[in-house]
Automatic annotation (TrEMBL):
This is Acetyltransferase. It holds the Pfam family Hexapep. It comes from Alloprevotella rava F0323. It is an enzyme of class 2 (transferase). Transmembrane segments: none annotated. Residues 10-65 form the Maltose/galactoside acetyltransferase domain.
Amino acid sequence: MYLCGMMTDREKALSGQWYNPATDAELREKMKHTQALLYDYNRLHPSDSEGRDALIRQILGQVGEECCILQPFLCDYGVNISVGHHFFMNKGCQILDGGHVTFGNNIFVGPMCGFHTAIHPFDVEQRNRGEERAEPIRVGNNVWIGAQVCVLPGVTIGDNSVIGAGSVVSRDIPAGVVAVGNPCRVLRKL
């Protein structure tokens, strides 16, 4: 129970309410800490897989066995990101994790992909105050996401699906399909 019904901005973000990341000291400090770790991570020698593994486990909230995220990699907080076993993410990807981003097992993510949980208000005054909301992104097991895919807030991608390169995923994708396009639509069942 929250004192007088007050929630921190981090709690608001994770519950899908409007919050302001710029005015919350906890969020600012967490982002600053994560950005410092990412600075080190992105400057590791490409052959230093042990160093990469150790740092990514400090950055992300949960990491399964055999996780490989190629540099450069960007995220906001890291703590809201969970990856399962046998996870591969190619270079140049970013995860804006104001909300939870969850990846299952056996995931392949192509280069230059973006996962964005933030929703900005249409109301000009609210937007100018820096407010935003976050909706979680969920990626099931055995999913392949092609190069330069953009996954938007609130999306779930079902197990055993393939998302074609360059797609903009703005709504849920069912399990066991190939989906492509802008907006991303089911092309066929697998």
